[in-house]
């Protein structure tokens, strides 16, 4: 692949991917030195993708799903969380593609997303939002707003200026791993055969107080098949709805354990593949529903909502995601309420 083609693909990929975290800011609401707030990020997302009332400011195009998680019990020694004990936990989730446009074309989405909410018998919840890339594009919230601004559409073309995007990447060498993946990755033909990764690190804590840093992936049991270039604007969502209508879909939850020296606060660095892995159980999705009708519609998939036995790492992207998810949630819920009140 030529350098010019690589840059074009980075631009195509980064445009939706930069919205992956629904923008970032610290929970406290400000980031030195620019005093960036959650509203700053949400407004920039709206400037880049347009305002679509009642929709998420990122991952606007999505499908609600439901099912359950069958724990293998293999991770119960690492965490006191009920989800890891042998048994079944109900799950509500959402497939989506990045970006704030609910009419976006699936064919332009190299990255896919799966968000999940586990609800244990004692009422404790675990919410997570994962993507299909093995690393994130930047390591800190400050860099994320720079990328959003670099990708703002120009008045002349209505599209981002490739030179500005390339300049951003040149100034941020931590993006190299993501760019390498984006330049070589072949997307599959379905949400069902896509792997979804946590990227951020968490600590599992067992009954004895022992802490183990982990990341995780949901590995599909549906065989991989490459996507077609002319598959259509809605092929991912049409496909997953059709598959769910035919029967359950499954993914194995695989925990990757950190070893000493592995970076737990930087999502741009993957851990070595040789690290220990544990098959913690199977996610089974059994049904789907459109955004307006599904149980996921009013869920904020805040990654800091975790059960006892799971603790977030100090990765600054986690606190940032939480703060801006909340701001985006407040806006769309208010818009939904206003629209419903006018009916």
Brief summary of the model shown:
With 343 residues, this protein is α+β, with helices and mostly antiparallel strands.
Characterize the overall form: globular
Along the chain, the helix and strand elements come as HHEEEEHHHEEEHEEEH
Average residue pLDDT: 90
The value of Rg in angstroms is: 19 Å
The CATH architecture term is: Beta Barrel
CATH topology: Catalase HpII,  Chain A, domain 1
Low-confidence stretches: 3-33
Strand content is: 15-25%
Tally the helices. Answer: 7
Provide an overview of this structure:
Helix 2 crosses helix 7. The protein has one domain (3-341): Catalase core domain (Catalase HpII,  Chain A, domain 1, Beta Barrel), CATH 2.40.180.10. The chain has 343 residues and is α+β, with helices and mostly antiparallel strands. The chain is 27% helix and 22% strand. It is built from seven helices and ten strands. It has helices at residues 3-17, 38-49, 141-150, 162-171, 176-184, 235-246, 316-341; strands at residues 62-71, 87-96, 113-119, 125-131, 196-197, 202-205, 211-220, 249-257, 277-290, 310-312.
């Amino acid at each position: 692949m030529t350098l010019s083609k690589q840059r074009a693909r980075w631009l195509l990929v980064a445009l939706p991917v930069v919205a992956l975290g629904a923008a970032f800011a610290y929970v406290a609401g400000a980031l030195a030195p620019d005093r960036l707030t959650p509203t700053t990020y949400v407004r920039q997302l709206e400037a880049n993708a347009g305002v679509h009332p009642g929709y998420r400011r990122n991952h606007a195009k999505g499908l609600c799903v439901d099912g359950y998680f069958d724990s293998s019990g293999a991770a119960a020694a690492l965490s006191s969380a009920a989800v890891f004990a042998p048994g079944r936990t109900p799950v509500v989730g959402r497939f989506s593609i990045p970006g704030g446009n609910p009419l976006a074309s699936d064919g332009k989405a190299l990255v896919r997303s799966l968000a999940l909410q586990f609800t244990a018998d004692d009422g404790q919840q675990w919410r997570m939002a994962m993507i299909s890339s093995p690393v994130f594009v930047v390591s800190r919230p400050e860099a994320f707003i720079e990328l959003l601004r670099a990708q703002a559409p120009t008045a002349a073309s209505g599209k981002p200026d490739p030179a500005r995007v390339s300049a951003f990447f040149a100034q941020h060498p931590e993006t190299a791993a993501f760019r390498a993946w984006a330049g070589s990755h072949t997307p599959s033909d379905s949400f069902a055969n896509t792997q979804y990764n946590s990227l951020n690190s968490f600590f599992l804590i067992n009954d004895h107080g022992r802490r183990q840093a982990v990341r995780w992936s949901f590995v599909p049991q549906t065989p991989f098949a490459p996507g077609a270039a002319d598959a259509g604007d809605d092929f991912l969502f049409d496909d997953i709805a059709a598959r769910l209508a035919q029967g359950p879909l499954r993914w194995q939850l695989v925990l990757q354990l950190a070893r000493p020296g592995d970076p737990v606060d930087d999502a741009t660095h993957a851990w070595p593949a040789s690290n220990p892995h544990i098959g913690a159980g199977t996610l089974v999705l059994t049904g789907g529903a459109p955004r307006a009708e599904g149980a996921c519609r009013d869920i904020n998939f805040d990654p800091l909502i975790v059960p006892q036995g799971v603790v977030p790492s100090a990765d600054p992207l986690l606190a940032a995601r939480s703060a801006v998810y909340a701001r985006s949630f407040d806006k769309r819920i208010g818009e939904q309420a206003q629209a419903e009140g006018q009916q």
